[in-house]
From TrEMBL:
Compositional bias annotation for Polar residues: 257-275
Species this protein is from: Nocardioides lentus
Residue ranges the record marks as coiled coil: none
Segments for region (Disordered): 257-291
Pfam families in UniProt: DUF222
Domain HNH nuclease: 388-440
UniProt superkingdom: Bacteria
Name of the protein this chain belongs to: HNH nuclease domain-containing protein
Length: 463
């Protein structure tokens, strides 16, 4: 703290040290800017000077950011307490962060987050001092605050340490970590920091913290959908880490299928190069452009939804929950090169080629309408390749029946070689197993499909 006498001596010139400091920094930055504009290049410096220059700029940036965050928090606290003299009150702004965003054309959300972090660090004297000294960056501070806030509120005192002293020990340990590790690394170390400062109770405290986090994650779980046009729906989900890992595992398996040891497909050993080649083919659209991992996972998610076993889901109105595709019989029986539309019971329009493909699986029910809106077929289970019939197909065809494809049968869709709409039957002789990629292709009107005497499918792009 500065004594009142020293403060009076320093401020005798009429300038507060905070204002004077800012003015000095601006003047120094102006000099540096002039040097850069005149052609001065940091690469001209020696290696040691270059390192000092960059490291110092980073430290200065962190220290100035800390001061800004502290100022935002302090001024906003005064504003919320009814101070009529602050910049926010003088302009009618809701907060100091909003006022500064308007004044500087900055991002209001980012400034609000900085004000919040400044308020959270204000009560941590060791952390605040380390930040002002440039020893802890704002990113490190955010990680440290989250760790401290996650500590149980009912920490029991030890014989040699009170609960408050234990929290201070954790704070100091994390500050020490910040001098050696990145924010992400400190976040990982923070999960085990109690093992360092209080190893006797670390496991119990961590278990309690994890249980609270799991309950909170389940409470905050949500999923929203929003139409964004051009046939797209944006799905946004916040789900617990456990369920996200399950979804990751399923999607990774669908994008990189492997042979299951209990699957009939395990009777053969697919060549790994062919399997990777097939995965690459699935990842490349018809225009030859590269398909990113995110796109592949998105398509795998769609495949997962199409193949959900609706018989295990809760029933609605006495029937299994399922989306129904409604299509006129005349439209369905058209030649494949003719186009038309079908509609789902959820109000989504799909092409006839999409409808024909969906007819092959049990995840989506078809409803074929004759004259006067008479339902000719509503997805009778005898139309699907399941049970013993499915097992017979997998025994006869251990892999996808597209030429050169080695995707295991367990990952394939059942398909009518002669379309059901054209009189096809649900039999082993008329059935085929195709991976999701080739199943889409066989229903793609841009391709002709030919079946070899051995039951393999080949595809030829129409001219």
């Amino acid at each position: 703290m500065v004594s009142s006498a020293a403060a009076e001596a320093r401020w005798s010139g009429g300038s507060h040290p905070l204002i004077g400091g800012v003015q000095t920094m601006i003047a120094t930055l102006d000099e540096m800017t002039t040097a850069l504009a005149a052609g001065s290049d940091p690469s001209w410096l020696s290696a040691a000077e270059q390192g000092y220059y960059l490291a110092s700029l980073q430290q200065i940036t962190d220290r100035v950011t800390t001061m800004k965050q502290a100022a935002l928090a302090a001024l906003d606290a005064a504003h919320q307490a009814g101070d009529p003299d602050g910049p926010a009150a003088s302009t009618g702004a809701r907060s100091t962060a909003d006022w500064l965003a308007h004044r500087t054309c900055a991002n209001p959300r980012r400034l609000a987050a900085e004000a919040k972090l400044g308020a959270r660090t204000a009560t941590r004297i060791y952390l605040t001092a380390a930040m002002l000294d440039g020893l802890v960056s704002p990113e490190h501070a955010r990680v440290i605050i989250e760790c401290l806030d996650a500590l149980p509120t009912d920490l029991l005192a030890r014989d040699d340490m009170s609960a408050e002293e234990l929290v201070e020990a954790v704070e100091l340990q994390l500050i020490e970590y910040s001098r050696e590790f990145t924010p992400a690394e400190v976040a990982r170390l923070a999960k085990h920091v109690l093992e360092v400062v209080d190893p006797e109770r670390a496991e119990q405290i961590e278990a309690e913290r994890l249980a609270r986090a799991e309950r909170e994650a389940w409470r905050r779980t949500k999923l929203t959908t929003r139409g964004i046009g051009e046939g797209f729906i944006r799905v946004t989900a916040d789900i617990p880490a456990l369920h996200a890992s399950i979804l990751d595992t399923v999607l990774d398996t669908l994008t990189h299928p492997t042979v299951s040891p209990t699957s009939p497909a395990s009777q053969t050993t697919p060549d790994s190069n062919n399997l990777e080649s097939e995965a690459s083919e699935s990842a490349a659209p018809d225009d030859g452009q590269y398909l990113s991992g995110a796109q592949r996972r998105g398509q795998a998610f769609c495949t997962l939804l199409e193949n959900l076993d609706t018989t295990t889901l809760p029933q609605r109105h006495g029937t299994a929950v399922a989306v129904t595709v409604v299509v006129d019989e005349d439209r369905l029986r058209r030649e494949v090169d003719q186009h038309g539309l079908a509609t789902t019971t959820t109000g989504v329009e799909v092409s006839l080629e999409q409808a024909r493909r969906l007819m092959c699986g049990a995840g989506v029910w078809p409803a074929v309408m004759g004259g006067a809106s008479v339902v000719l077929d509503a997805g009778r289970t005898r139309r699907f390749f399941d049970g013993r019939l499915r097992a017979a197909l997998e025994i006869a065809h251990p892999t996808c029946q597209a030429t050169g494809c080695t995707i295991p049968a367990a990952w394939c869709d059942g398909h009518h070689r002669t379309p059901w709409a054209a009189g096809g039957t649900t039999t082993v002789a008329d059935g085929a197993l195709l991976c999701p990629h080739h199943h889409r292709r066989v229903h793609d009107t841009r391709y002709d499909t030919h079946w070899t005497p051995t039951g393999e499918a080949t595809f030829h792009r129409r001219q």
